[in-house]
Specification:
Elements: H1 2-15, H2 17-37, H3 43-49, H4 51-62, H5 64-77, H6 85-113, H7 123-126, H8 132-146, E1 158-165, E2 189-196, H9 201-218, H10 223-261, H11 265-299, H12 304-308, H13 311-320, H14 323-337, H15 342-355, H16 358-374, H17 381-397, H18 407-416, H19 425-430, H20 432-457, H21 459-462, H22 467-480
Antiparallel strand pairs: 1-2
């Protein structure tokens, strides 16, 4: 009995060794940083401590662009042509709609609760004007960047509207009324559109989506190109796995540097606590209010029994923190306990495992806003819209391979809104082992609710005389795509 228990402990330790090392390095690094801070280290010493962490994060930045392009092309092009068109279209719309709503919820929570707020906001943020003209310019910048002129140029440059202040002659009586004027009231600007040295993520993501969709239509005609993309993707993922083992060293370096810079430990943990509380509040709202309310409106039944029958699957999701590992049990709960049509579950649930990550979408948006606020940066409406879209595409791109708390995802989101300082990422990663499990529960639950809605909407079709043929087509499609082997 004792040996079996010891074997279980060793198995669990081997499985979660990287997470254990990351968490231990984070705690140890922060404690060492606080102790060293008492010695009043020089700025150069603090900078040198953070060098190992900076090198690891630069290595992650190096592979982000090829990772995004290959993963999105691979994910979109893998959607087969045999699936029932209308049911598949509805399922995709529901998945994208729910993920986008969770991204928006994360943005609203971030801007309303303001978990990373500073006590004194920088002057440039206080004076920032959110006029309708500025908002229009920002929206136009997004539209210009969606379709880049040159896809290679989009990897390192994007278009943006630059405001250049005009030199105007002030009237004689200007200084008599200067106290009644706002800081930017008498300033005039010329607008010019320029390319700046930042990666055009929104353009790259759009181009990748289009290429993936065309490859899905062409099917076997581009089989060689699909294999090439798959092989490049495998190389990048293998590089990512190697880098993950250097992450504990990077975490120790970054968090130790943060501890050496921290003047008020209580304020730091207060902000981190606000972030965790805000994210948990959003997940609870989605879990117990939004999804059940939509179930009542669409199904016209109480969601209590439906929810109760999924308990074992949700428990498995929390323990494994993997939608893929939970899929067999989720299928069993939906088909045997909730009596959901097998035609629907065999299409919707495997597809949801790949495309539907609502909890992760919420986390990525909220975490990016939190880090921006910790840096003293307030994101505008245009940046928030770009952030939501980028996060949505990221969680679709590579689910089941690396989780949403992975630094590559957060670095990409931060870069999309123009933030390249990553010193606060380790704070989020230190507690992501728990939050990841909560997000996985929401992801699995969201898949099940979407399956119930699709079954209700296609109720007549699923129970019609042609339903066996539909079932055969859908099972052939899912089997051909190897959904259940993941």
């Amino acid at each position: 009995m004792e040996s079996e228990c010891w074997k279980g402990v060793k198995k669990w330790t081997r499985k979660n060794l990287c997470s254990i090392l990351i968490f231990s390095a984070t705690v140890l690094g922060f404690c060492v940083g606080l102790v060293v801070q008492k010695l009043n280290p020089s700025p150069l010493s603090i900078e040198l401590v953070g060098i190992p962490g900076k090198l690891v994060f630069q290595a992650l930045l190096m592979i982000i662009v090829p990772l995004l392009i290959c993963s999105i092309i691979q994910g979109i092009s893998s959607v087969g042509q045999k699936e029932n068109g209308r049911m598949l279209a509805l399922t995709l719309i529901l998945f994208l709609g729910m993920s986008l709503s969770c991204s928006a919820l994360g943005a609203v929570l971030g801007h309303v609760v303001h978990p990373g707020r500073q006590d004194v906001m920088p002057k440039e943020i206080i004076e920032h004007s959110g006029s309708s003209e500025q908002i229009l310019d920002s929206v136009l910048d997004v539209l210009r960047n969606i379709i880049p002129r040159n896809i290679l140029q989009a990897t390192f440059m994007k278009q943006t509207t630059i405001l250049v202040e005009k030199q105007v002659q002030l009237p004689i009586n200007y200084f008599q009324n200067v106290s009644e004027k706002t800081p930017n009231q008498d300033k005039e600007f010329d607008k010019t559109i320029k390319y700046v040295n930042e990666t055009n993520f929104i353009g790259l993501l759009f181009c990748s989506l289009v290429i993936g969709a065309v490859m899905a239509v062409l099917g076997d005609q581009v089989k060689i190109l699909k294999h090439l993309v798959d092989e490049i993707y495998l190389i990048i993922i293998k590089m990512m796995q190697y880098l993950m083992w250097f992450l504990p060293v990077a975490m120790f370096s970054w968090i130790c540097q943060e501890g050496m810079r921290t003047e008020s430990t209580s304020k730091l943990f207060l902000r981190l606590g606000r972030y965790i509380g805000t994210l948990m509040g959003g997940l609870i709202f989605h879990h117990f209010i939004l999804l059940p309310l939509l179930y009542i409106l669409i199904i016209r039944k109480s969601p209590v029994k439906f929810h109760k029958n999924l308990f074992s699957a949700l428990l498995m999701a929390f323990g494994s923190s993997s939608s893929s590992a939970t899929l067999p049990l989720t299928l069993q709960c939906m088909e045997e306990k909730n009596q959901t049509n097998r035609v629907v579950t065999r299409l919707v649930l495997p597809l949801g495992m790949t495309l539907h990550m609502n909890g992760s979408a919420m986390m990525m948006v909220l975490a990016t806003i939190f880090i921006a606020q910790m840096e003293g940066v307030e994101l505008g409406i245009d940046q928030t819209i770009v952030l939501c879209l980028v996060s949505l595409l990221l969680v679709i791109a590579t689910p089941g391979v690396i989780n949403a708390g992975n630094p590559a995802y957060l670095i990409t989101d931060l870069a999309a809104v123009g933030i390249y300082n990553h010193q606060h990422i380790p704070l989020i990663l230190a507690f992501d082992w728990f939050l990841e499990r909560c997000r996985t529960v929401n992801n699995v639950l969201g898949d099940c609710y979407v399956a119930a809605w699709v079954e209700k909407i296609f109720e007549k079709k699923c129970t019609s005389e042609n339903s066996p043929q539909v079932a055969v087509e859908l099972e052939d499609a899912t089997t051909g795509n190897n959904w259940l082997d993941k």
